Structure formats: C-alpha cells, structure tokens
Amino acid sequence: MPAHGSFGGGGQNGTPAILQRLAEENAALRDDITRRHLTDLATGILAAQLRTTPSEAAEHLARLARSAATRQEDIAADIVNGVAGSMAVSAPSAGSTVWTDARRLRRVTAAAEAEDSVSQGAATLLEGGLRPLGVEALWLWRLTESGCLELVGHAGVSALEAAQWRWIPPAVPLPVREALMEGEPVWLPSGTTDGHVLPGPSERAARAVLPLRVRGSAVGLALAVWPDSTELDDEVRMVLPGLVEVAGRLLGATAEPIAEFPALDDLLDSLVHPAMTLHRDPGTSELSIEHVNAHAAEALGGAHRVAGRPIEVAFPLVHKDLSAMARRAQYAGFLQRAARLPAEHNGDSPAPLLDVRVLPAGRDRAVVLWHTASDRRTAVGRAVGRLQGLALFEDDLVTGRTAWTEQTYAIFDMPRDATPIPLAELGSRVHPEDADDLAELLADVVERRKGAAAVVRVLRQDGGPRHVRIAAEPLLRESTLTGITGVYQDISAEYHTEVALTATFDQLNAVRAQALLRHRVVLQLQQAIVPEIPSPAVLPGLSAAARYRPAAAEYRVGGDWYDILPLPGGQVLVAVGDVAGHGIDSATGMVALRNALRGLAFTGHPPGRLMGWLNEVTLHAPGHPTATAVCALYDPSDRVLRWASAGHLPLLLVREGRGRLLEPPHDILLGALPTSSYEERTTRLVPGDTLLLFTDGLIERRHDGLDKGLDALRLTAEELGPCSVQEQVDRLLGGATGDTDDDTSLIAIRLR
C-alpha cells in the first residue's frame, strides 16, 4: 500500500511530478488567455469593418480559419497586423537569429498585454520576442507629472540594479532626454558616450532607448540592453519598436492620479521622527516656523513654543545654520545635511538636532527633518547607518603604495587581488561631471594641507554608478606631505531614497501649482465676464445692483451667473443661474448659457419659451452640463414681472418692510430632459418694491435645510430697513448665512 500522504503514486518522489503538472496547467491557462485576447481583438476589428455584430464577426473569423486550414489565432494575428501594421521583417541572412514570424510576434505582444503586472509583461516581451534579438534586459519607466521617471517594470535585471535605477530625476542623461523630446528611438550600438550613464553590464554595451506613447502622449520610456556592443541593423530597428509599443499601454493602465498625494502637513504628521516646515516671507526673506509634527513638538517642548515664531527666536543657537541650509536646498533643489546641531528648549534637557535634512517644498517653503538623541527608536538605526558602506584607504606618497580594506575593493567593484588606485588617480573611475569636485578635494588635501570631503559618482561594471562620499586627511611630517588617508562611504541607497523623496515633493508641488494656476484662470475668466449693471437712465423706473462672490476654496470656483439687460421693446431681462459643478468647465458653461439667453431674449418671446430654448442649448452644449436658472422679464408699461424657473430657488419680494418668498413652478432644471416646457408666473410690482434673485451659495448651510436659510434671508432683508439697493446687496452678502464656501450671485431690483 502506498505510504500516507502520497499523491499520484509517489510520496515525496511524486512532488516534482505534481509541480510539473501544475506548471504545465498554468502555462496552458496563460496560452488560452493570450489566444482569447488576440481573437477578441480580431473579432472587434471584423465587426467594425463588416458592420456586423460581434457574434457574427466571431463566426466569420472561424470560417476564415477553416478555409485557410490554419489556427484561428494565426488568422487573428494576421488581421490585427493588417490594421496595426505588420510586424514582419525581411528574410534574415544566413546565421541570423532575428525572429521574422509576424504571427508569433503578434502573439507575444498579446500575451504581454494580458499579463497581470508591468514586470510580468516585460518578462513576456523579453523571453518571447527580445532575447531572439540578442537583448538581455528590458527596463520600463513611467513618466511622472514632475518630469521624473519611475521604474515600474523590468526583466533580466538584478535587484541591486533595480534599486539603483528606481528613479531617474528630471535632469536625465542626454539619450533619455533626446528620446522623450523627439519621440523617436535612440540607438546606441556601442554604448553611451560623453560620460552619460545608463543601466547595463558595461559602458560599451549596446542599448536602445524607446519612448512609450499612448494616443500621442508620452507615458514613459523603455530601455533594451544587449550584453556587449552590437550592430543594431535594420531588422532590429524594425521589430523592436513594434514589440515594445505594448509596454506603453501597460504603463497607461497602471498610472495612478498624482492628485492623490497627501497634503504636506499630513505627510509630515505621518513620520516617526521630528519634522517641521519653514516659511520664507517673500518681502523680508525672514524664515518662520509654519508647522511642527508631534515628534518635533515633543522634542522642542511643545508646539506652542515654536509654531508661528521666527526661526531665530525658536532656534537661537542654530538659526543661521538652518537658514543657510534652507537657502542652499532652495537653490540646489536637493537635500542638505549637517552632522549635529544643538537646539535649546524649555524642557528638562536640551534636544540636539541630529542628521538634519532640509528639503525644498515650494518657492517659499522648506521641510526640515532630524533625529534627537532621546529618540530610542532610531538611535540604533543611526549607529548602524554610520558603519554601513565604510571603506578605508591610505596612500603612501613616499613609497608610492596604496592600501585598501576589503570593503574598498567592493565599493569600486574590483577583485581582491587588483592593484589599489591612489586617490590622486581616481579621476578615470569618477563620472566626468564630478571631476571638478574630486579636483577641489585633492587641492585642499595636497596644496592647502587640510582635510576635505566630497560626494562623487564612481563608475562600476555591474550596472550603474555608486554615489560615494570621500573624506580625506593629509599625513604630514613636519611641513612635508607624506601621505593621504581617509574613508570611502557608499551612500547610493541613501541617495536614491533622497531622489524618491524629492520626486514625491516635486509631484506634490506640481499638483499645487496646477491647482493654483487653474484657480487663477477661472477667477480671471469670471471677472472678465461679470456684466456691468446698466445705469438708471437706461432702466425704466428701476434701480438695480448685483454682486458676485467667488468660492472660498480654489477647487470650488463654480458656474454662478447673473444678468440685467434692457431690451429694445422697453422690457428688462433679469436672470440668475447656477451651472452644476466647479472649475473651468462650469465657468465656460456659464458663459455659454448666459450669452445664449441674451441672444434669445431679443426675439421678444416670453420667459417660458426662452427657458425652453435655453434647455435645448444646454442639452447640446459640450460636456452636457446641467443648471438651475430664473428668467424674468419686467414690463414697465404695466409694472408686471413675468418669470419662469428651471429648478431654481424662489424669489424674495420685499414690500413695505415685509419679505415674501415667491414660490417658483416645479419645473425641471436645464439640460436634464429634451423638449421640456416651462410654466410662467406673473407678479405685479408697486413703487418701493425690492425683488431679490440669488443662488444657493448665499443661504445654503451644511447641516440645515434650505428652508432655514431662506427664512434667515427673509428676516435679514426685513431688518435692513430703508437703504439704497447698493447698500442692501452689500449688507445681505456680508450677513449671508451660507457656510458651504460656494460661489454666490445676488441681484436686487427696486421700483423707483
């Protein structure tokens, strides 16, 4: 009998067979998903071309496959290639390994598009289509709002390389910048030139930098890397862009909205170490403390002691150092640091500032991050951090010998038996852009005979540069320089963390800048289109005043409008409205409706007919807006006001000091239904009457019904007593009970 726990007749010996069977089932399932995806694409194309239903198109595809005596997915690949452009290449020369089967290439892209993640899609592209071209690694970066490139997928890449190239800041290498700007691949058969560093096994390895676009817009970048220099012939240049094109759709499908980044203060409050924001007064350039998180408040003796105070008051001992660091960070655009800054507070003991970092967070703001000696949660981490990546060196200038520790060889990616490189000869291993920093360090040590430090990028052979901090001291015998000793420290991980932080804050700042610009554009648009109130000379027997108050919050600027317009027949058009939503779309929709109503009013038709036409205009407006509105026509010959309402608030009539709400007909709002008719109401006015038309921002409250707001407005209007219409609208707007921060329109007309 088989032993307990055996399955498939093998006990433990059966486990490999089970795994093999599961792997085969998984592969078959993925093949089926790919076939379905490809045939679905072809079915959709046939349905559009033949103008038939999807089921009939699927039957037609099956008939084509049967008549051609070939597989259905092959016919599907031919159809998709015919529409998207064939991926076939010319016949390869003898010995060529270039894959020329267009059907198989199309199946590879379909399989990649059906994968669950960008990295899985990259692996499918590499194994199925790029390795036959000689490619050994594929990188996929997504372009962020701040101009940074974020690594979101890769294949054939080590974890170390992926960590080193997690972010590429906006100051990208020239080949990357050229591909993004020109929108065309950059081919590098002999590797990078002029010191530009890109991922790869060596500088001379061939690379192809390919921009990724979706519907004409850049979404990211792909990098294909060969193991060595390679002639990138016409066959490769024809096939590779078509294979990688699908990666753009993968990036677009996984893009996350930048607007979901948290507010800056909320971000600092979530940190587990002290942090604060500094604000610079644009007029005086004085720095003050804007916000401190809970850990900073604890370290500084309470937020009330520092928040809102000038930096020299809160930090009397180190305010000059912090100001200088903030200024350098603002202009350099990256983190600055100091080893230790003592700070005073009114607690039981001083809380020094350790590992200080200053990060720019806008034109006039900066973020300060630090640790304290009393923070036990991070003390051990700081101690370990000081030991990580340290490597010693000593150059004996008398004997010409250089001694390295084992860690030094690792930093420079050199074998243990290699000849150490003296500091003075390190230039060949340093990025050309950092050569001046290394030269300045050598001048301090050799010529000025003093210690110095610098951060440079060391070019390695294992995929990208390492950021290395060099601290060197001269060895002197009396006045003679006999040697140089010091420390190399690998700070690559720290640097990439800082780049990621910088990218995060850049994205946050970009979102805020876009929101501010959008707010200003909307306000300027509204201010430009607010109509002037006609003078009493052209308003028969009427005095009129109107006010518009924009929303308090920049993202809620909306579509409120009003209009007072004398018409050729002697009547006066009076209207208010509110387009649903907020922002530029609502503001432009408001302009369209107000101008349409102005034109329609010149036809001489009554308000109900005008409102019906305005509903048709709204139904056919871009974006399909909806709106509430009141349209009224006042006839001075009989002092009658004829008016219609589309879901708007009632009018308020003030007569002999008493207010009365004129209930509107219960007609539907504009843009909701076609061929809607609107009922008219008639109100006869007498001298001294004041009529108020307004939008909901004047009376709407978050936790109360509209009835309470309307009643409060009526009581306020009654309490004002005798005053001009100009004073009346100002006082009503100043005493408004609405608390939703929405925009508001208010009109008052009075019979003289």
Question: How does this structure look, described?
Answer:
- This protein has 752 residues and is α+β, with helices and mostly antiparallel strands.
- Helix content is 37%, strand content 24%.
- It is flat and about 115 Å long.
Write the layout of secondary structure elements.
Layout: H1 15-50, H2 54-68, H3 72-84, H4 102-113, H5 118-130, E1 137-143, E2 149-155, H6 159-164, E3 167-168, H7 174-182, E4 186-188, E5 207-214, E6 217-225, H8 234-254, H9 264-269, E7 275-280, E8 287-292, H10 294-299, H11 311-314, H12 319-332, E9 336-341, E10 353-360, E11 365-371, H13 376-387, E12 390-396, E13 401-404, H14 406-411, H15 435-447, E14 452-458, E15 466-477, E16 480-490, H16 492-529, E17 542-549, E18 558-566, E19 572-582, H17 584-601, H18 607-619, E20 627-635, E21 640-646, E22 651-655, E23 658-662, E24 680-684, E25 690-694, H19 706-719, H20 725-734, E26 744-751
Antiparallel strand pairs: 1-2, 1-6, 2-3, 4-5, 5-6, 7-8, 7-11, 9-10, 10-11, 12-13, 12-16, 14-15, 15-16, 17-26, 18-19, 19-20, 20-21, 21-24, 22-23, 22-25, 25-26
Helix pairs in contact: 1-2, 1-3, 1-4, 2-3, 3-4, 4-5, 4-8, 5-8, 16-17, 17-18
Index terms:
single chain; 752 residues; alpha+beta; six-stranded antiparallel sheet; five-stranded antiparallel sheet; flat
Query: Span from first to last CA?
Result: 111 Å
C-alpha geometry: flat
Question: What ranges have pLDDT less than 50 throughout 5 or more consecutive residues?
Answer: 1-13, 86-100, 255-262, 331-340, 343-350, 374-386
Biggest sheet descriptor = 6 strands, antiparallel
Beta content comes to 15-25%
Which structural class do you get from the secondary structure elements? Answer: alpha+beta
User: How large is the count of helical segments?
Assistant: 20
Strand order of the largest sheet: 3-2-1-6-5-4
Secondary structure tally: strands: 26
Mean pLDDT: 76
What is Rg?
Answer: 36 Å
Helix content: 25-40%
